[in-house]
Structures are given as structure tokens and as C-alpha cells.
Amino acid sequence: MTLHEDLGPNLTATVITTGLLAFITMGLRVYTRVTKRNWGVEDWVMSIGCLPLLVLTIVTTIGSYYGIGAKDSTFKLPGNQKYVETAYFWFFLYEVFYCTSIIFIKLSIAFMLNRIAGNKRIFIYTNYGIMTLCASVNLAAILYIIFQCKPVEAAWKADLMAQGGYCQAPVYLQNVYYFCSSVNIFTDWATALMPIPLLWNVQMNLNTKISVAGVLGLGIFTSISGLVRMNYTVNLTSSHDYLYGLANILIWGYAEPALGMIVGNIATLRPLFRGMLNLGSDNSVQELSKGTPAGSGHPNRPHPYRSFDHDFELGTVVDKKVDNLVSTQIHGGQNGRNSISSDNESQKHILEKSDGRFSRNNGIVVSQQVDISHS
User: Fold this and answer.
1) How many CB atoms are located within 10 Å of the residue 308 CB?
2) Which residues are CB-neighbours of 223 under 8 A, at least 6 positions away?
3) What is the pLDDT of residues 183-213, one digit of tens each?
4) What is the predicted pLDDT for the residue at 176?
């Protein structure tokens, strides 16, 4: 027997719908990354984040069938009182795995933004700060949730309270929720708006800029679920229909990491969208970005993230200013089989940039001519 009443079915529907979309997009992400051989650190982090989100999906769904979302009047019906303790247990697990999944999903998105930022160190260090803030706050929330009661089981076993157990007042948990939600909303907006200054002066066609900024900007919708969830956080101190009020917290709380995973995964699916949505990239950017660790025109300046093919990625930020160019020209003929290449045919030119032209002091262009002929 289960207790699936009042808001319980709403909670189940939300979890199944958003969770299914999250894991479908994760499957598409894995397929895209593996087939294009573009697997990176953010993909590992998101893959790890699938585990706590999967557990969160399971415990929230089970909780919806065992009392979460039911009104006090429903529990007063014969045989339903036994579900109260079970509902509190599944809510306890929900709290722990909600914070855990949020950490990995947000870190994955942040690592992706750092790679896109290339060598723009101000964005990278800012993102490190955002990562640290998000991870530390959610980790602190996990520790508080676990150890707010002594013993831990007193969080869901009422008989332990009568035997000398102790739990912090509900208002403290409410304050933790408010603070944690505020930080998560802030990080959502920060990561959603960061692509705007990143892409402002980048050599990309308008289609690509709009697609990149639009996909990453979807993170704003994730923050909406956090804002709505804060509105229901007041239910944590309610003495009437407590488990009924928890359902709305869980509905919008579960949607936050699930939507975060969906947004993070969609941002990697450009190869699947290119033909359908005409998300072409600027050829000049592709040529300039290849061959440098971060695609920034500074091959000697290291970058901690692997650089992927611009054709299969959102791309790495490329500045309009190019310091060095290497140009190779290949000419074919029909009068022989030999390929002739000598240092005498390589020419080095120091150019001057004025009004869009290259500067003599700005770099060296190496032009090598290779004559290839065949009969």
C-alpha cells in the first residue's frame, strides 16, 4: 500500500517529466561527445552529477508515493498515520541529494564557460570564485541537514525525540534554504550573463553569437525555479499541512538541478542542431583557433582546458587581433613527380598594421611555397 494523494501525483509528474528530459539530453551529450571525440572535464563532472540526480529522482518519486504532498486530513484516515515517518525519511534524503546534484551540475557548466573563455583570465578567475561559492555553500547545507538532529535518525523518527533526541528549530533550516537558494540563483544569473561580454568582440557571425548566448542564457530559466521555490520555503515552519506544503518545495527544488542539467547538455549538442538551425561558424575563426591551446592567437600562453574543434563546439573565444599568422601555399603541376620544398622558398615578412592592415611591429607572417607536380 502507498499514500499517493493530494499533491503527490503532481510531484510524481514533475519528477518524471523533467528527469526524463534531463537524462535524454545527457544521453545525446554522451553520444555527441564520444562520436566527435570531444570529451572534456566538464563532461566528466556532468556524468558524475548524473548519479546524485538519479538518486534524487528515485527518492523524490518514492516520497511522493509515501506521504509527501498529503494533507493532515489525509493522514488522519485509518491506516495512514504510519506514512508520516516514511515521508520525513524520504524528504531527508531529498535534501541531501538535491544539494549534491546542484554542486556537480553547476561545476560542469562553469568548467564549460572557462574553456569557452580561452585565455581571458578575468572571466576564468571570476568563474573560479563562483564555483567556490556555489560548492562551499551547498556543501555546508548538506552538513547542516545531516547533523541538525542528534542522533541523525531523529530527523524522521519522532519516538527518538521522546527518548532525549534533539533537532534544531525549523526556522534555522528555513534560513539555510533561503541562503542556499539565494546563492544558487546568483550563480545561475552569473553564468547565464557571462557569455554576453565574452562574445561581444569575438569574430563570429551573428547566427553563432545568438545561438551560443541563447543556449547558455537558458540558465536564467533555471533561476526561475529557485525563485518560486523560495516562495514556498515558508512552509518549512508551518504547523499545518506540513508534508502537503513540502510538495511544492520539492516540485520546484527538483526542477532546478534537472533544468540545469538540460541547459548544460543542450549547450554541447551543436553538431545535432547545425543542419536544422543553420548554426554555421565563421571560417576565419576556425582557422585562427586551430593549432593553439586556447584558440586565442597566443600559442605560448598555456590554458588549463582542452581546446576542441570550433566546428563541433560552442567554440573558444578568439580575439580579433592576431599576432602571428603562418601561411602555407601549395601549387600543383603536371610535369613531374617530385615534391620540391626548400628554405629559400620560405619568405618572412614584417608587416605594418594601419587601418585594418598588419603592423610591422605586430608579428611575422611566414609564407612557404611548396611545388607539387605529377605526371
Assistant:
1) 22
2) 184, 185, 188, 189, 192
3) 999 988 888 887 777 766 666 667 666 766 6
4) 94
Distance CA 177, CA 140 (A): 11
Give CA–CA dist 96/94, Å, rounded. Answer: 6
Q: In terms of residue numbers, what domain contains 50?
A: 8-277
The conformational region for residue 370 under phi > 0 = left, psi -120 to 50 = alpha, else beta, is beta
Instruction: Mark whether 19 and 165 lie in a shared domain.
Output: yes
Q: Which helix (H) or strand (E) holds 106?
A: helix 83-116
Eight-class DSSP state of 182 = H
Give yes or no for a contact between 146 and 96, defined as CB atoms under 8 angstroms apart: yes
CB 32 within 8 A of CB 77: no
Report the percent of the chain where pLDDT is more than 70.
68
Q: What is the pLDDT of residue 372?
A: 52
Q: Is residue 357 located within the same domain as residue 260? A: no
**242, 261, 277 — which closes off a domain?**
277
Domain identity same for 64 and 205 = yes
Asked whether residue 37 carries a pLDDT value surpassing 90, the answer given is no
How many residues comprise the chain? 375
In-domain check, residue 78:
yes
The residue written with cell numbers 562553469 in the block is 110
Residue 180, in any domain of the structure: yes
Q: Count structural domains, the chain.
A: 2
pTM score, whole prediction: 0.74
End residue of a domain, out of 214, 242, 277:
277
Mean pLDDT of the chain: 77
Which residues are CB-neighbours of 303 under 8 A, at least 6 positions away?
118, 119, 293, 294, 296
Surface-to-core class of residue 361, CB atoms within 10 Å of its CB (0-12 exposed, 13-18 middle, 19+ buried): exposed
Please report where in the chains the cell 498515520 appears, as a residue. Answer: 81
Q: Do the beta carbons of residue 109 and residue 260 sit within 8 Å?
A: yes
Instruction: Inform me whether the pLDDT recorded for 231 exceeds 70.
Output: yes
**Residue 292: HSE in the Cβ half-sphere, 13 Å Cα cutoff:** 29
Would you state the torsion angle of the CA atoms of residues 2, 64, 71, 253, taken in this order, to the nearest 10 degrees?
A: 170
